[in-house]
From TrEMBL:
Phylogenetic lineage: Bacteria, Pseudomonadati, Pseudomonadota, Gammaproteobacteria, Enterobacterales
UniProt source species: Candidatus Pantoea floridensis
Keyword ATP-binding attributed: no
GO biological process, one term: fatty acid biosynthetic process
Keywords: Oxidoreductase
Protein known as: NAD(P)-dependent dehydrogenase, short-chain alcohol dehydrogenase family
Amino acid sequence: MSQRLTNKTAIITGAGSGIGSAIARLFAREGARIALFDLNTETTAALAAQLQEAFGQQCMACVADVTQPQQVQRAVVQAQDALGPIDILINCAGVNVFRDPLGLEDDDWQRCMEVNLKGPYNLIRSVLPGMLARHYGNIVNVASVHGHKIIPGAFPYPVAKHGLIGMTRSLGVEYASRGIRVNSVSPGLIMTPAAEAWLASCPDPQAERERQAALLPCKRIGEPDEVAYTALFLASDEARFINATDILVDGGRSQVYHD
Ligand code: NAI
């Protein structure tokens, strides 16, 4: 075991499912103390207990809706009190909101922006003072290929993910001289419960799954671990000169101009 995060403390949002759970597992395996933030307490609490048992360091679950600044602040204090100062923040909680732009309800717009864009900011605002005081902090936002390219029929999700990449670059520059790095990862299609739910909503899920795999240069859909390893690299000191940037984890798909 390489223990790339020994003696580090990390908060991971959206840790109860998909990519967030994969990041939590990998970070625990690499020696980090972790706080798993999510809405879903049962799944998250079970995962925290399982990881603590498997790897020995402290792992805890915190109930926090990322759209609620006061809840976030309380959970961050709870995590700090239990685990120590926060070294790493992974903003992974997110929701797909795909609507016709003219049929979009205000509530859908609001939910999309609140979870995918304001949520990460709420977390950053809560951990940043502690990080600045110690002149050390690594933040990784989970953005998307939708933050780089437009897939028709996915509005307003790409608006939020473009914003998240903009926030990554802006805050990365803002705090660079004070020991803080802010980067993002942009997954392509990754097989998670959210992706499964989207496939299930298609008229022919199996045909859509095959079509999606065929679109990718590598001819397969991505796995949550493949995003987790990129987040691990960015969150670790191996990436100490990497700041205010984004890494695409999409099998090369978004570089293709024509099939
Ligand atoms: P998922 O739906 O499997 O997991 C998302 C987690 O976020 C869930 O546990 C959910 O409870 C939590 N969450 C949702 N709203 C929350 C809130 N308000 N407060 C706290 N937690 C909340 O999703 P998946 O696929 O693992 O996605 C994770 C991230 O990766 C998201 O930001 C998503 O936009 C992004 N992403 C996923 C891709 C994919 O193909 N799966 C592709 C590109 C980006």
